[in-house]
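Methods — Computational structure assignment.
A single polypeptide chain was analysed. Its primary sequence is given first, followed by the predicted tertiary structure written as structure tokens.
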Amino acid sequence: MTDQTFLPMLGPILPELSDADASAILDYLHELVMLVESHYLVQIRRHAESQFQLAEELRTENIAVSTSITKPPHRDQQP
């Protein structure tokens, strides 16, 4: 494999294909995505919801921390 056929972080450069072959590969990939999504939909949604909930919890914690840090005590209050 030469440097011309592989780009770091991007993987191998794809070969030239005929229009029909490129279309067939795209159709296959669409079918594969549909199969994976339909088979694992419950798990995918459960994971997405847990990630969303975690992000919300972290956002809420960050707001509480940043608010407590940025709000100086009132001048009549002792620190």
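Note: The longest helix spans residues 19-70.
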